[in-house]
Amino acid sequence: MEPYSSKEKVNPQDNPMDTQITNARLLQEIEAAAKKITVIDPACRYWFIRTNGGEFYDDFKASKTIGIGYDLVPLFNARMTIQAKGDLGALVDTHYPGMSQPRRAAGLIHRFIMEMKPGDVVVIPSHHSQEFSFGIIQKGEPFEMTEKIAGLEQGFKKRRSVRWVVTKPRHLVEANLRSAFVSYQTLSEATAYGDLIDREMYGLYTKAGRTHIKIEVGHIDGIYGRDYFKMGSAIFELLDDLEAELKLSPNPERIEFKTNVQSPGWLEFISQNSALIIAIASITTVALFGGGLRVKSWGLDLTTPGLFNSLTVFLNAKQRRKLTAQILKAKMAELEVEPVTEMMKALHDPNESPKLDPTKAKEDEKPEKGSNSEPQTS
After folding, report:
1. Domains and their CATH numbers in the chain
2. How distant, in Å, are the alpha carbons of 124, 166, 215, 277 from that of 181?
């Protein structure tokens, strides 16, 4: 990139007052988007629950529940025994005489009734763990299913309500997390892997006062250093401009960076300033698609007034920014960087959780015919 002067030319049709108004609007839109970021309770626990070899996987998803067996032990009796500090193992033995390890079953029932809480995260595997579904336990006590599930001998009747957030095929789940799920227990705690699970569930979230953005890199034939570092340099150059002009933080803000570029892999940016993370999400989105994109799957039109449109105006205000945005677009395309879908979803409907489908082709996320997909150079 050619050196540039501090006396860099701006768009001649702009004047300082227009620039101030545009920047003020952009700052408001960034701050508004930051308020829509998913917030994860740092006190929540994480659980991995098996589906009887995949037998109950589809049922759990369709019924928006998770469940355990030992159906002959009434849920009411189990709860009363626990509250009375009675012998839950003896209760299990009463209904399953001759069971070799009734106390192991009692421990499972106790965890399901007493330790799992609303707001906790659950992960379930399909048959042979070909895919995993991630969800959040909803409000309400455990309950017993009364209707028989078609085609299934037993019902795993003890249930909890769950809101499913995302389903991912095995190959898109981090290897470190897949290995953590190699457990023969029906229900096991996975809180030690909470950070990995968070990153699988959300591309954009805040936890314990720190906001995270995960950018997926889809290239599978090896990552070239020049492309990788030029992309990162372009992101931070545009971010520095945005931070300086909009005064996104009163003091220079350190942004933590993590990466796992194993072809495919990901980049993660973390900051205590959520506005900076929104800025990164916006910069990468506009660089990928530009201000002329209509994202049909999210019901978004980036040509209308809003954050992405305002950021496009900001990038077009100076020649250097336009060139940097074009370099970023090219490098992201070469590395097959995926859009941060939660960012688009939050702007579309903040009350609805992201419906992510990592296997879906980006057919509807291409510029409409005749639209321009990158910041304009004049």
Report:
1. 16-40+208-365 (no CATH), 46-201 (3.10.590)
2. 9, 17, 24, 30
